Every structure is written in C-alpha cells, then in structure tokens.
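Quick one: structure tokens for this chain, please?
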Amino acid sequence: MKKLHSLALEQKEDTKHGESYFPVQKYITRLTPDYPVVTTHWHDEAELTLITKGSGLYQIHLNDYEVKEGDLLFISPLLLHSISRNCDKEFLSETYVFHMNFLGSNSTDVCSTHYLTPIMNLEIALPCLITENHPVYASLRKIFNQIHSLYDESINGYELALKSMFLQAIFLLLQYSEKKEVSYTDTSSNKLKQVLDYIELHYGESISVAELAKICYFSDYHFMRFFKKHMNMTCIEYINNLRLEKAIELFEQGNTSILDVSLSVGFHNLSYFHRAFKKKYNMTPLSFMKQLETK
C-alpha cells in the first residue's frame, strides 16, 4: 500500500505530487485545533477531494465554499486555494492530486485541444463544489469510491483504470462548465500569486510591507487590507507561519542548531523565534527535536 501524505503541514506550490511517470498522489488532510488551516497555495496539478469528517471553509480562486462531510470538490490547476475547519474538533478529507499530463493534456488530439488544455489554462471553469443535491453528485461519488479502491489495491493495470476514472470525472463536470473571461477575481488572484511567490523566494530575508505592496502597485494601506481579506491573516502572520514551517523542515532534515535554523528562515531574534514556534506548535524547538529523536 502506498504511503499517505498529509496536507496539514506542508503546503508548497513546488511540492512534487507523485512521480514524473505517474503524477498522482493521495493525501489525507487532518485539521485540528493545533493545525486549523491549510494556508493559501496553488500548483500545476488538479485535485479531487471528498470531505470525510467535519465541516469547514474552502477558499478557491478567492471565492468561499462552505463544505461538510460527504461533499466533493474539484480544484482545477493553478487555482489559489486554502482550507480552514469550523468549530468541529476534527476535519478530515481525502484528496487525489493529479497532473493533467497524466490524462493526455500534452498531446495534440481533440481531447487535449478542446478540453484538457483549456482547463489547465483556466479558460474553462469547472464547478468546484459538488454537494449531494448536484445532478452529477451520485455518479462522481461512485467514481471517487472507485479511485479510492484502485489506488489502495494497486491491482495489475490500475494506472489505466485511474486515468479513465479521472477522465470520466472531468467529463461529468464539463457538462456544467463555463467559458472564462478575465475578471477582477482573476486579476486579484494573479497579484496574490506574485506576492506569495516573492515571499517564498525571500522568506529568509527581511521583507517589508512596502516591498510587497509595490508588487501589486498598491499603497501600503491598500495592500494590507487586500492581503488580510484574501488570506484571512496579515502578511506578517503569513510570513512568520511560512518561516516556522521551513524551520520544521530543517529540523526534520537533521539540523540541530536552533540558532542556525532561526537565522536561515528569517528570524533574527532567537527569543522571538522561540515564542513564535511555541505558539504555533505548542512546544519549544528543543522539545520538537527531542520528539524527532524518539520516532
């Protein structure tokens, strides 16, 4: 059986999903009071998700979707998205992340030209949230269950069957698709992507609000309101959160100097790093390293 991955801690748009020859990966997302959100991110792959427990809020392409147990979601490539749980103690979902090239989007046939490539280029908008009242829900849920079984059992030729299942899912959703035109949401999404890209590249350095505002051609005040509205946190909170996740990665890679890790991820005040780390993970960096040693 394949190893499951969690989306609760690691949200990097450059994460490799599956292998180059089989770009499909299953993820289990678990949100709790300790890890209540999956921060805004995007990637080249599409996602098909089933909410298996609890309720929460998905923000997809800057639009909000209330979700509950049993709901299905499809997220097209390149769309910004985030997840937060409601008041439930636990939120669980099962997600299959797959690259459209696996379905043949890099070929030159009619399927690629008319459907797969336009979906990848966001020229066709597929429905994101499919509840039990949606006309395709029953069929799509059946397909999801088949994907679940095929992926876990890995019987001979299961890759062929998975490809057909993903294609069937897209066929069903295409019946309710819309042609996309550039909108305010698209423009805002692109600005936000540029800002997140910049932060990803420079999180280890000092980053000012003025620098980020300049990317969007906003005033500092307008930018701070823009970022808070779409990210549900301030840009400083986002940067610190990213730095702490990068610190976790360094500790997991075997780095044992708390000072070196703190400096490399952009915290130049060690005591502040300790406070921020403990607030986010409910333990000190030293306690976290000791926990790693026992695994």
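Residues 184-202 form the longest helix (19 residues).
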